[in-house]
Amino acid sequence: MRNFLILLGLAMAVMSCGKASEDGNAQVADSATAQVEEVNPLLDSLKKSIFTPTAKKEKAECPENKDGEFAHYKETEECSNAEIVYCGRSDYYIVDAVRGYAIMQVYGGFLDPTHWLRGDFNSRNTEYILDKTTGREIRVIMEEVCLTEDRAIDWMGIHRKLDFDDQETYDAIND
User: Fold this and answer.
1) How far is CA 49 from the centre of its chain?
2) What pLDDT, in 10s, does the model give residues 132-148?
3) What is the pTM (predicted TM-score) of this model?
């Protein structure tokens, strides 16, 4: 009989711990929800900083790719128009292309965020794109393609290519 009472006492203790644990989990869940709500304004401000157009853009006509006009740029079926939506550090840019956002590094110059681009923004490689506004060729490496807003921000933040203020905000969100 004594063993039965000990087992009964242990069972009741385990059940009460389970109840306390459930209450504790509810408190932890409420705390996590509160943290997410606190972080969302930072994330929203980061997205607004990155994905808000810096200037009103007027669409430029795409120059024709006449034979010999461009030394390196080649117009293919995959080419499409894109606009720069964010200028990061170290010549990294986020562009809004047909199949999503692309991250590219530019070699040999600065791109004006008001300019429109044309090229293959759907494959990762080194290539030449066309600045439609000026008609000049630009050598780029497509680092990532076909991204969502969140994935584009994450890639730039993880690789520390956001501008300084945005990088601080990103780090605060992801600490």
Assistant:
1) 12
2) 888 889 999 999 999 99
3) 0.67
